[in-house]
Amino acid sequence: MFDHILVRYGEINTKGQNRSQLEQMLMRNVQQAVKHWDEIRVRRISNRILVKLNGAPVDAVLEPLTRVFGISSLSPVMVAPLDVDAIVDVANRLLDRLEVAPRTFKVEVRRGNKRFPLDSPTLTRHVGAALLASHPSLTVDVHHPDAIVQIDVRDEGVFLYAEKIPGAAGLPVGMSGRVCALLSGGIDSPVAVWKAMKRGLQVDLVHFHSFPFTSERAQRKVEELTGTLAAWSTDLNLHLVSLTETQAAIQKSCPEELRTIILRRMMFRICEAMAHSKGWLALVTGDSLGQVASQTLEGIFAVDAVTSLSVLRPVGMEDKQDIIDRARQIGTFETSIQPYDDCCSIFAPKRPKTHPSLAEVVHGEEKLDVEQLVQTALQSVESKKIAPRLDALLQLT
Amino acid sequence: MSQETIYLDYAATAPLQDDVKERVTAMLDVFGNPSSLHRIGMDAEANLSAARESVLQALGARQGRLVFTGGGTEANNLAVQGSAPHLEGRGRHIITTAIEHPAVHEPLRALSARGWEVTHVRPDANGDVSLADVVNAIRQDTVLVSMMHVNNETGAILPVEELSRVLEEYPKIRFHVDGTQALGKIPVRLANTSIDLYTVSAHKIGALKGVGALYVRQGVRLEPILYGGGQEAGTRSGTENVLGADAFGIAAAIAVENVRLDKDAAQTRQWFIDELEHIPGWTVRKPKSASPYIVNASLAGLRGEVIVHALESKGVFVSSGSACSTARGKQKRSHVLEAMGLSTEEIDAAVRFSWHPGTNKEDLRKALVVVREQSEWLRSMVGA
Q1: Cα(B154)–Cα(B151) distance, rounded to whole angstroms?
Q2: How many CB atoms lie within 10 A of CB A383?
Q3: Where do the Aminotransferase class V domain residues begin and end (chain B) (predicted)?
Q4: Fewest beta carbons within 10 Å, which of A206, A260, A380, B150?
Q5: Which ranges of chain A have pLDDT less than 50?
Q6: Which residue does chain B place closest to A249, by CA atoms?
Q7: Is A343 within 8 Å of B305 when comparing Cβ atoms?
Q8: Which uninterrupted H or E stretch holds B346?
Q9: How far is B140 from chain A, CA to nearest CA, in Å?
Q10: B305 interaction partners in chain A (CB closer than 8 Å)
Q11: Rounded to an integer, what distance in angstroms lies between the CA atom of residue A202 and that of residue A237?
Q12: pLDDT of residue B223
């Protein structure tokens, strides 16, 4: 029976000044992740966070915690009273609970509680000998053991743990500020959002649709993707924006081969118009260099020219296969590849210009009433809060 | 959604009729298993028999039996797959049309993979299938003809009654008709025909989904496709869906009566077509012989699905292509319109308006106003 989960955080430790603020942020995110269990208590203990289970099921609780950015590793902890026999007894149980039975082990003792009668080397030897006696197949290996039984003698009791589960690493979501990400429903943009969150960004999502030229199924798909991404953070804001009028105007008055680039410029302008009131400090896109026509350096330059916001492209330098692998790991891939009738294609140019100059593009959109189109799009904004989609929640006991 | 809803997708499915809704609610307490020997079972059996009679009557059948199934698809599969073992001794050639529903196409394809030969008779450019073409396809070894009564996409009425008279001369040939889109839309009188098997579906006439039936002419033997407890005289095992069958029986009686009363149906359809053709960009499919409740048309330069969404945003619900073939995202091109020889652009731009005897002309008029407005808007969007 595990009593706690010990949460370690790595990268935060290197930040001097804001450390306490960051720790608070991580605390809050950890609390968010386990909020479904009323019995759980979260507190800080010297450079660690301790999640007191109070009976909550350890595996179910670990699941959301492995998706909290900023955590370097997690260990389920058993607590023994300050008594040698009790420590041996719990150490035995801990070994027996390991998923893969170790062949070699070692014991490591940290004695923060100096009033405890045995010193560290003595306790190490004592527990080691007892474990060898009860597990005939085990041998000690102090250099490369299969399992390390950690014994932490504290004032209020003894913590024992043998597992170190890797955390999601990165930085706590929220510590790097708030940005807006353009979420298309494809494979790349959810991965870009995930990477942005991993670096501590609080991400609001914007999805452009052109109903009735795109179907409501596309919208549902984006909501599903947002839910999956929210499982790595917390509730996410999703803003649905209609681009129908804009597309029609571009269709009417811009050269065909520049339509895609001009449409992207309009998207950025609309995001920028929303940025101030939403507190966005940058834009995040799923562009990946060279993937499609608008994702050449010239294309990127022509699009970025309309905004004063920084444009972050987390998957900009990644190979498609690597993006796909990541999408599978995050859980967005299956949703992203759901096909739906994407009727946008009727607006897509047959041969988009891959290396447009900025002057060409500016000239190409001369006839466009940019101001008015941005206003129309802003009036169409529909905002939703999307809660995490946790398949794990269904298994709560 | 304060706007009015005008549902014009009856060929896809129909809402529950009010009388059926009441009846289903009242019937929820009839829970018996018709196979049980006690009174509770017998009460359920009595309901089932009454429903069977009611559907047979709606089909204008004087003899023969009715096998309840889990829908029209199953009835079609039972007709095709269940006939094959009884026919193959006499020949292995089947005639069908190029415009059948997949629920007939696919079981036939499975047979052709097992060595049967299937001839697909093509329609003309209007969607009509000619009697002569079907008769000309008959060979020495033809043992089955499977043909729909009313096409679900164009509304074309196929010459099943005329063909059944011709087939009286060919006692070796079994004749299956998929009447899914006919019941409740045009008069059906099986007693005047030599049709051996006739498929119907409950949800198309305002009863429940997952319920269908196959009419089986007297003396026609079928191999089951579901084996088990031997219900439905051994043809379709599984405890009968008493509630679904009962609702079907009620709906069938009402549907037939409504067809009889809707005297202006053909006129209304003609008016609808004329109006639609007056809206710039529209072309309409006009089979010579057609159900008065289905109109298939294209808006040049647009995709069917876009038209569907544009109309639904104003409360008018239609479908693009064939409702059943909008597989998730993979828009299969309508095989019906392809067989008629339409251009790809025209096929992709096709939508289907379908209604029923209870639809009033005022709603159709309102729908046409929306169609006109939205068509203009859509066309301006794509620069048509």
Answers
A1: 6
A2: 13
A3: 6-364
A4: A380
A5: 341-343, 392-397
A6: B381
A7: yes
A8: helix B344-348
A9: 46
A10: 215, 341, 343
A11: 10
A12: 97
Cβ–Cβ under 8 Å, residues B81 and B225: yes
Decide: B143 and B96 in contact? Cβ < 8 Å: no
**Residue A397 pLDDT:** 33
Cβ atoms < 10 Å from Cβ of B375: 22
Query: Which helix (H) or strand (E) element contains residue B224?
Result: none
pLDDT, residue A389, reads: 85
Name which of B184, B208, B253 is nearest B27 in CA terms. Answer: B208
Which residues in B lie closer than 8 A to residue A244 (C-beta atoms)? Answer: 381
Distance of residue B52 Cα from the nearest chain A Cα, in angstroms: 40
Helix axis angle, B72-87 to B102-113, nearest 10°: 30
Q: Give bridge partners of residue A199 from the DSSP assignment.
A: A171
From CA A262, how far away is CA A246, in angstroms rounded? 10
Q: Helices marked H in chain A — which ranges?
A: 19-33, 58-65, 84-96, 120-134, 188-198, 216-230, 244-253, 259-278, 297-304, 320-330, 333-336, 358-364, 370-379
From A184, A308, A179, A312, select the one nearest A241 (Cα to Cα): A184
B157 is catalytic: no
Q: Per the CB < 8 Å rule, is A211 touching B313? A: yes
Distance CA B297, CA B318 (A): 11
Q: Is B303 on the interface with A (CB under 8 A)?
A: yes
Please report how many Cα atoms fall inside a 13 Å half-sphere around the Cα of residue A311, on the Cβ side. 22
Q: Is there a contact between B295 and B272 (Cβ–Cβ < 8 Å)? A: yes
Distance CA B157, CA B153 (A): 11
What distance in Å separates the CA atoms of residue B306 and residue A28, rounded to the nearest whole number?
A: 45
Q: What is the value of pTM for the model shown?
A: 0.82
User: If interface means Cβ-Cβ distance under 8 Å, which residues of chain A face chain B?
Assistant: 211-213, 215-217, 244, 247-248, 251-252, 338-341, 343, 346-347
In chain B, residues with a C-beta closer than 8 Å to the C-beta of A217 are 329
What are the percentages of helix, strand and coil residues in chain B, rounded to 5?
40, 15, 40
Q: Pull the structure tokens for residue A60.
A: 């179910």
Question: Which stretches of chain B are assigned E, i.e. beta strand?
Answer: 6-7, 65-69, 93-97, 117-121, 142-148, 174-178, 197-201, 212-216, 282-284, 294-299, 316-317, 319-320, 350-354
Q: Which residues on chain A are in Cβ contact (under 8 Å) with B303?
A: 341, 343, 346
Q: CA-to-CA distance for A159 and A121, rounded, in angstroms?
A: 17
Pair of tokens at residue A382: 């529909």
Distance from CA of A136 to the nearest CA of B (A): 57
- A216 and B329 within 8 Å at the Cβ level: the answer is no
Percentages of chain A per state (helix, strand, coil), in multiples of 5: 40, 20, 40
**Integer angstrom CA distances of residue B244 from B18, B26, B55, B322:** 15, 13, 12, 25
Catalytic residue among B46, B324, B358, B366: B324
Name the percent of chain A lying above pLDDT 70.
Answer: 94
Query: Which residues of A are known binding-site members for ATP?
Result: 182-183, 207-208, 264, 286, 295
Give the Å distances, CA to CA, from A96 to A83, A85, A92, A93, A272: 20, 17, 6, 5, 57
Smallest CA–CA separation between B266 and chain A, in Å? Answer: 32
Q: Which residues of chain B have pLDDT under 70?
A: 1-2, 321-331, 384
**Nearest partner of A330 among A203, A172, A192, A164, judged by Cα:** A192
Instruction: Measure the CA–CA gap between A336 and A323, rounded to whole angstroms.
Output: 12
Q: Which two tokens stand for residue B297?
A: 């048309």
Residue with tokens 């009425």: B157
Nearest CA in chain B to A348: B382
Cβ(B178)–Cβ(B129) below 8 Å: no
Question: Alpha carbon of B283 to those of B190, B319, B350, B382: distances in Å?
Answer: 35, 16, 9, 18
Quote the pLDDT of residue A230. Answer: 94
